[in-house]
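Field: COMPLEX_INPUT
Field: COMPONENT_COUNT = two
Field: RESIDUE_TOTAL = 496
Field: MODE = joint
Values follow.
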Amino acid sequence: MKLKIVSLLLLSFVLNFSIEAQTYFTKTGTIKFESKTKLEDIKAENRKVLSVLNTSTGALSFTLLMKAFDFPNKIMQDHFNESYAESDLYPKASFAGSISNIKQIDFTKNGTYTANFTGQLTIKNVTKTISDQATIVVKDGKISATSKIKVKPADYNFKIPAPVVGKIADELDVFIQLNYEQKK
Amino acid sequence: MKLNFTLFSLLILIASPVWSQIDTTTLKSVSTTPGLVGDTSSLLPDIDIFEFDQPDYVNSTFKGNRIINSQSIEMMGKQNLDFRISHRFGAINSGAYDLFGLDQAYQRMSFTYGISDLVNVEIGRSSVNKVYDGTLKFKLMRQVVKDKKRPVSIVFLSNIAVNSIKISDPNQSPYPFTNRLFYTHQLLIARKFNKHFSLQLMPTVLHRNFIENSQYKNTTFNLGIGGRNKISKKTAITYEYFYVLPNQINEVNKNSLSLGVDIETGGHVFQLHLTNSLGMNEFLFLNETNGDWLKGGIHFGFNISRVFYIGR
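Field: COMPLEX_OUTPUT
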């Protein structure tokens, strides 16, 4: 028992070296997508998104497991993982980029800021450059970032079979919500 | 213990400078290029040291909650309702007059509801012996990709069946209700070996409250094996076999063997199969299977399932 506590303490001490103070992270970021068509509305939510934000360099990245997208209808989830996302072959999606106007954001002061970000979005091993705007809210040392982007499934090698064409939108609305904690 | 501890702390002490060194170098590379658009190489190692909160659970071990006759480890998700119709026709060897069994049709209807992703409840009614049944199904373990501690999915299920057929034999009147009850307890252990091949073992204990001859056993032990091989994106071959341990049931009864095909369309799963069992309840196909594969005692059958989401 004693050994466990001491080793845990030591381990956390070691880990701290690797994460600098200006690094903010979350393991419970949320990414939702919605597909709206006349025939069917499809929604899915992933609440286990990993993300890291470096407030001094503006570097921003996130990664998620495709299988962690939770569909209310589990049969849809099965189809998504097996036929569309092919999650066994491509388990993760990720984004790596940066905020270009990071200097204009004062992370020490409470406020709402608009951040312009650019980076590489990788889904199913297809990488595309995206740039959009995010809203960053700083409140009492806590940082949250929200953004809404558009993603075209066809761009990322999603093949929609004939019977369900019309049920899946050409363009998905993707909502990103990341509530960061500072890694001390 | 003491030695272990010393060794461990030594190891930590040796390791920590290495870690911090790696880190300072990456941090340096950041500070030389502040705010450079697209430069995130320094961040990627950071994100990789975190682990996802959710394990990478294996999905689609089977299609739907039945392999053919037997239950599979697949469960209905929370607030998902599966409506299933199973049909079995007469035996193929009943001849051309009955169109090889197609003139006789037996069915079972069932509803399976997901109380949670890990607990399911099912009710069903079958026209064979007019059986009503209820099942509780619990997922005990979920297979996780590349996790040696969780190599299989495990489900426990318990089923009670009531035979409601009228007993016309005056010698057996009044027929006590308890004689109509059958209990099944089953452990399902399944592994998806790769995206084409899944296998399931099914040790099963069955209890029949009443049996026609005391030389047979009320409680029988059975071992089942079932599998699924995908042959294309939407179709798979399925099979299952139940071995009844010797000296437990009437020798005229056979072990249940079934072969089938799963066909997926948008929201439905069709399962077509050939089986020597007519009954679709555990006590019937395990211990009262009459058909002999070699003599054409085979029934054609199909299951259709449709899943509804009934939350919100």
